[in-house]
Design goal:
single chain, mainly alpha
Length: 79
């Protein structure tokens, strides 16, 4: 999967630390940025395919992202 979409990502225009909140820290500002981003879907697809489980990707925080990765893996293995 390519990463050319990153050039158009809104996160490229913000502080990268925003997308890697401390444990117990808020991810709401990062998620809000993601929701306005035109490449949100590509970002999320990349994160799932790469198994990214840390940070905010495609508008999902760590817990949501981990659940999605597990769900997609389960779909793949049961298909």
């Amino acid at each position: 999967m390519g990463t050319a979409w990153r050039d158009d990502a809104l996160c490229q225009q913000t502080d990268p630390e925003l997308f890697m909140p401390e444990v117990g820290g808020s991810a709401s500002d990062a998620k809000r940025t993601c929701m306005a981003c035109e490449v949100r879907r590509q970002c999320l697809d990349y994160a799932v395919a790469a198994g990214e489980q840390r940070g905010v990707w495609g508008g999902l925080g760590q817990p949501e992202l981990r659940r999605l990765i597990r769900a997609r893996r389960a779909e793949t293995t049961s298909a």
